[in-house]
Design a protein that fits this description.
The chain is α/β, with parallel strands linked by helices. It has 15 helices and 18 strands. The model has no long low-confidence stretch (mean pLDDT 95).
Amino acid sequence: MAIHHFSHPLPQFFNKTKESYRIYCESEKHMPGGVTANIKHFSPYPIVMKHGSGPTLTDVDNNEYVDYLMSYGALALGHGHPRIQQALQQQILTDGTYLFGAPHELETTFAKKIKEYIPSMELLRYTNSGTEATLLALRLAYAFTGKTKVAKFEGHYHGGYNEMLYSINPDEKKAGPIEEPVTVPESAGLLPGGDANTIILPFNHPEACERLLKKHSRELAAVIIEPVQGGFIPADQEFITRLRKVTEEEGIVLIFDEVKTGFRSSLGGAQNVYQVTPDLTTLGKVVGGGFPFGIVGGKKEIMDVSSPKTGSDVFDTMQSKGSSAEETLFHSGTYNGHPMILGAGLATIELLESEFRNTLTFANELRNELESFFKQKAVPMKTVGMGTIFNLVFTDQAVKNYRDMSKTNLFFRKELDLHLINEGIYTKPLNRYSIATVHGDRELKKTMDALHYVFTNRLTGS
């Protein structure tokens, strides 16, 4: 195995992104850390973009990039797709407004389209983000079961709220044994003792997972899982099948968080690939056409807990149904089912119906080209993923979970990512590649040319 060492990428990075740096320094005066979301930051500073078109982004220094981040997978059609622009314009022209504040027919039309591909969503509710969707899914599970704890998997992310801000990227020294992980806080500001209500499970370890679920079954309302961890580490079939079986036996609601994988692992999400039916599913990103959006859907008897027909609402001051508000799960939001977003989402799905197969073919072609390149360079690398999302993982070992991923050559990957950014290939360092319908031969050639250039001109020895 060859050991490669790159020249330092930062001098060239600094030289190419001077205006990004100037704007970032100015932004620090107005926003904590200079960003509106922690995920947008990376060291030494994030690149400031000014324009997107199809498969490309252009930054404020006029550098153009092939974009593989695609807003963390949200843009399945690329930037500024004309079908999305047309859908937005048509919605406003037809409806005369961009917000009703009341039911509208597109809510039902869109729900029918979603259920064509994910029939496990017998009833559904719209939210304004994937985070809101998972939060509502947990509340539904608590209300339906009457139990008060939730189990999540080590290395999985479901949103930035208290129950889920544990063991996302924990220090292994604090994380405990893999067979029974410790609940490790991942943020300041969590409530004292909150860790007692979130049980951490080992991903892709069926025996240990089953044992922990049975141990805590009397108190667990739900298990929430990314069936493809981080969007790119797939669950083993045996693991996901056994998880479904034990949750059914123990009366625990199984939630598939398909915010990353919905309409990317397949048009029917990861549950279609695994042929496993969860009790609840959450969607986001892709199905909103790149706009703030989420969905929770699942079994009728669980979703009906939130029906305003079953009892009083928090805003029902008359208490006209003879019940108190606490008997009905409250879910509301002025922007839920926003007509512009539903129009963009419907256009996205309709285009994916005809173009998903080609997008998947390109993703596989790119993966093959990348693996072949690194094999020729004697660098142990594999692409890990499912559908139109994958990641570059530098190891010759199997990668089944968070702990396996933490043992890969992350330093090499980060330096390579920065060198590729310098050559016009963009994803946030260490992030997955999300393929859009607009990626094609030009982007493939530019990507491989950039890799050849980096290995020819940026290596200091091996």
